[in-house]
Write a structure and sequence with these properties.
homodimer, 450 residues, alpha/beta, Rossmann fold, Dihydrodipicolinate Reductase, domain 2, eleven-stranded mixed β-sheet, six-stranded parallel β-sheet, 17 strands, 36% helix
């Protein structure tokens, strides 16, 4: 049998080669990328085995956060993808309109593409990867998920021996900052959100962060890499953190839990669960102790068991760190005339399977329920009887004495695992009891034990 | 300028290729590797883009933990490295004598080598990597550090944009299990060690684990990958956990710290620090909450900031997970006639530099000190005066009332940062005070803030 490794390249030759990159977009991440590439060029080039050179930057305006020196700058980003000298196009303009055109054009021009654009990959990744495969170029997107944490590489390459069971991630720093402040300082959601906006953590329109859309983009990407399924952004169940109250944070604490906004992807009997929602998790779990703007992803896999990856999920240089890691991966190979052999989603494209995404009504989970009950005999028994008829057992219960002058008492229930539609039917029934006021607050609970 | 990516391979071709591996050693990790490769072969082959086949196993005896089916088995492991059909040799026999011969022979026969052998890499890695470079083959060793956590890949590839500042790891599961039990259950070292041995976590001779030698092997490897320095096992400062008492665990707790056995590698003005020792770390740090047999490595790097990697540091399948990830990395490339372009230590070998390893006397750190002081006036003042003369300030102090019938009181001091030799001189002086009995317990303190 012939030996398979026939290519042999001398190091001296490698050191002389140059890989030319073109950066499109010079905002926060763009300028961070320029700065890190310049500051650490000796280390980076030694790791890449070649000289990585920023040949051109396309940006509508300069950015005083970085020094461009003699780098050519064009105001038309499409110049970059048309530049025959450029090997790798780095897309950092964001959005899904111009960015999509740019990436497609780059691919059809035979350029490799590195992007930090989660929306683009989550919504148009299938189409982009198919075109890249046809053109024989790589599209890398480590920076699109969890900023500087090498989570795509870890799942796709580091855990390549495994069948992934599930993953759960704190993948939106703004949301985690808000929940952390609510818990640590007893502050209210709206108050912390205003501060996060002032600090620049949250956008003026915070919808993407607090409603879970940003997390859903990232979750979809993680799930495809973990489970070999096409990207299906339209199928993620998404619930934000806007309804989380200080009370819930406190009761969760009393029960030994923390509330985190998680993206969860799980392989179950019926297919794959894809869901973003606030979640009570046991305070003893490492991920329950990930605070502030930090991100973390917990992955449970059959051979390795649970592993966790933690770090900065956003910011100029953390994101640049991921962008440059992708550049190095591609440059290491193309500088010696090789292809970067890691498939975009980690699996060969003909292996990707159309496993169904499970509807939220059909998932099984435990629930934290908070209701306002009239302080009368028989209320608890009426509630318990509804759960009992539905076959849902109660794991824990807190009933508080009424505050002075109040006629209602808070009643907090942790249920055991139940199918969502069954639980929702029971909750509706309870809400109709004359002794239960207002609607019931419902937060899912996950034990996350691997 | 010519385009650099000239190789183009059709996927259909890739799928048909077979990469033949030979496994030497069929102990815990060997049988785990066989089991995971067989169970997950569809996923693994799809990720690798080729068919990974166990062509031969060399083992002195069978192992009933795995089914070998029709795989050829030889009792002479050297048959495997001589087998012309085999592309990748997986060394899982352990030790540094036969394993070294085997690996060198494999390399000189043009085989790629995957190993889980930390002692072999830490002590003979420089020589092994040099020979591999000459022969144009890869030597991969992800499984040698922190079991199933993809920490080598994360530092070497995931953080390739960064200049690493320092790393600190819980990289010995047995030691962490002992310290966790001491804290959680108030048990004594010897008692927990005996249980760890009974559970199979600790070897009959626990020296490697509890004296820090195993952690030192792993630390040396991490440091080389992080700082581009040759492997220097003989230069690691190593201190075990055998002297940690229940009292220290409790006082640490009272001060807001946990005691962990850490491997620390840090870039400082004078060079690189390489040290393994028990360490007080603030209980709020995520790594302080890594318990039981789990491992975790915290890496602080200039662009990304702190990142943490957590998971199983040992065991059959977690270790197999790392072994197979390496196999996939190499197979992905050699199956299409390419080389695996990631250098063994992540940097091209001519970039490796002989940065000095700092002597332990010259490092700067804070200290936890516990002494037994006579319950007399003036003792505290005498101690404080010695520190003051040495220019060492005291960060925190606990003085307990004497127990009934005792004439001495425990005096616990947390110092600020000081150079080790200065601190040791002050401690010696304090030990000579007539009012201080016995020797002083000294444990280093690290804040680990990134």
């Amino acid at each position: 049998m012939p030996k398979l490794y026939s290519v042999s390249v001398k190091r001296e030759e490698i050191r002389l080669r140059t890989v030319a990159i073109g950066i499109c977009g010079l905002g926060t991440v763009g300028s961070g990328t320029v700065n890190v590439l310049q500051r650490n060029c000796a280390e980076i080039n030694s790791r890449a085995g070649c000289s990585i050179e920023i040949r051109q930057i396309g940006a509508r305006r300069d950015n005083s956060d970085c020094e461009l020196g003699s780098i050519a700058v064009t105001r038309d980003i499409f110049d970059v993808v048309e530049n025959p000298e450029i090997d790798i196009v780095v897309e950092l303009i964001g959005g899904t309109t111009t960015a999509l055109d740019l990436v497609k054009k780059a691919i059809s021009n035979g350029k490799h593409v590195i992007t930090a654009n989660k929306a683009l990959i989550a919504e148009y990744g299938n189409e982009i990867f198919a075109e890249a495969e046809k053109s024989g170029v790589s599209v890398c997107y480590e920076a699109a998920v969890a900023g500087g944490i090498p989570i795509i590489k870890s799942i796709r390459e580091g855990l390549s021996a495994n069948r992934i069971n599930w993953l759960a991630g704190i993948i939106n720093g703004t949301g985690n900052f808000i929940l952390t402040e609510m818990r640590d300082k007893g502050r209210d959601f709206a108050d912390v959100l205003a501060e996060a906006q002032a600090l620049g953590y949250a956008e003026a329109d915070p919808t993407f962060d607090v409603e879970g859309i940003d997390a859903a983009h990232k979750l979809v990407i993680l799930a495809s890499v973990a489970f070999a399924i096409p990207l299906q952004f339209d199928k993620v169940y998404t619930e934000g953190i806007t309804e989380i109250s200080q009370q819930d944070v406190e009761y969760a604490e009393e029960l030994g839990y923390r509330i985190k906004h998680l993206g969860i992807a799980r392989r179950c009997e019926k297919g794959i669960e894809l869901r973003v929602h606030p979640t009570l998790i046991p305070e003893k779990r490492l991920i329950a102790n990930v605070n502030g703007v930090k991100n973390a992803v917990l992955v449970d896999a059959d051979a390795v068991g649970p592993t966790l990856y933690y770090g900065a999920g956003a910011g100029a240089e953390p994101t640049a760190s991921a962008v440059i890691a992708d550049i190095v991966d591609v440059a290491r190979n193309i500088s010696v005339g090789q292809i970067h052999t890691v498939p975009a989603l980690g699996f060969s494209s003909d292996f990707l399977s159309e496993v169904p995404i499970v509807a939220i009504e059909d998932i099984k989970t435990s629930y934290y329920l908070r209701m306002s009950a009239e302080d009368k005999p028989g209320v608890l028994s009426a509630v318990a009887s509804i759960f009992s008829k539905a076959g849902i057992s109660v794991e824990a219960l807190i009933q508080k004495a009424p505050e002075a002058g109040e006629v209602t008492v808070p009643l907090i229930i942790l249920t055991n695992m139940a199918t969502e539609h069954k639980l929702m039917a029971a909750v509706s029934e309870i809400e109709q009891l004359p002794t239960i006021n207002d609607s019931i607050t419902k937060i899912r609970v996950e034990t996350l034990d691997g």
